[in-house]
Write a structure and sequence with these properties.
Elements (H helix, E strand, L loop, with lengths): L3 H9 L6 E7 L2 E7 L6 E6 L13 H4 L3 E6 L17 H15 L4 E6 L1 H12 L4 E7 L4 E2 L1 H12 L8 H7 L11 H11 E3 L5 E3 L4 H4 L4 E2 L11 E6 L7 H10 L4 E5 L6 H4 L1 H14 L3
Parallel strand pairs: 3-4, 3-5, 5-6, 6-11, 11-12
Antiparallel strand pairs: 1-2, 2-4, 7-10, 8-9
Helix pairs in contact: 3-4, 6-7
């Protein structure tokens, strides 16, 4: 059994303060948050599918001492614009990141990607080398099989649920996947930022379901062949997404990659055990200072 302090740290986590900003990327208004400490080494965080910048609210504070932390809402998510017609391919997301990085003039920066954001971050690092200096991939399904992509497309074709009031939306909010030890306070915080008023007065989710409806099958593992910078692969201790075979495959392609499991966490590592996550990542970053 993992030591109890990790659980206590998770319960005590508080969201870091931030400021909201908009960048025009590929013709869309893309929302991002700035957690402060400008002038320090930049860190850019990319969330997963149906998530938002706020998946990093509980870890940004522990990175601020050494880093200028930014997090971006990917197109179709959070407070960023939706693409019409839907344009949600991984390479499109990676091109958005490239344009954002250039506009913000980020150099020698740390890139952290969770879940789908990990695939986007890995695609970006492989296709646009030169600016990112350290890469952290968090509990990402590196091989999106045709069967898995088909299931997501089927989910995306269903109409999303709406709720009569904002409070009802918040009370019914659930993570996907559902396995998580995030505290009720953390979930309520996320739900408050996810609630979106609909035209008919009901409340829905700030997420374009077309992101899932057009989900592509992709094998991200070959991207590791092109990663030459220090890299860390992070697994949620209870998550099944990164198997020993996947770790071995990644290491065969990218020998310098390091691997760590964060205890007391499922897929949503930054929510389940934020202190454990930041400890693991900070150890890696300290080892590979630029």
């Amino acid at each position: 059994m993992s030591p109890q302090p990790n659980r206590l740290d998770a319960a005590a986590a508080r969201p870091a303060p931030y400021t909201d900003h908009i960048a025009k990327i590929a013709g869309l208004d893309i929302h991002y948050v700035d957690y402060g400490t400008a002038g320090r080494t930049p860190m850019l965080c990319i969330h997963g599918g149906a998530a938002s910048t706020h998946w990093f609210d509980f870890v940004a504070g522990d990175f601020n001492a050494e880093h200028h932390v930014l997090a971006i809402d990917q197109r179709g998510h959070g407070d960023s614009a939706w693409a019409d017609p839907p344009d949600y391919a991984y390479e499109r997301y990676a091109a958005d990141i490239n344009e954002f990085v250039n506009k913000q003039d980020l150099r020698d920066f740390v890139l952290i990607g969770h879940s789908m954001g990990g695939t986007v971050g890995l695609t970006y690092a492989a296709k646009y080398p030169g600016r990112v200096s350290r890469l952290v991939i968090v509990d990402t399904m590196l091989n999106m099989t045709p069967d898995r992509a088909a299931k997501l497309r089927e989910v995306g074709t269903r109409q999303g649920r709406t709720y009569a009031t904002r409070e009802e939306f918040i009370s019914r909010f659930r993570l996907r996947p559902a396995d998580s030890s995030a505290t009720p306070e953390v979930l309520r915080h996320l739900a408050g930022h996810a609630a979106h008023p609909e035209a008919d007065g009901t409340w829905g989710h700030k997420f374009d379901r077309q992101v899932y409806a057009v989900r592509e099958s992709i094998d991200g593992l070959p991207h590791w062949n092109h990663i030459r910078i220090p890299a860390l692969l992070v697994k949620g201790g209870r998550s099944p997404r990164i198997t020993p075979n996947v770790v071995a495959d990644v290491k065969s392609r990218c020998p310098q990659v390091e691997f760590v499991e964060v205890p007391d966490s499922d897929h949503h590592v930054t929510l389940d055990n934020p202190a454990g996550f930041t400890r693991a990542v900070n150890v890696f970053l300290a080892k590979h200072k630029t």
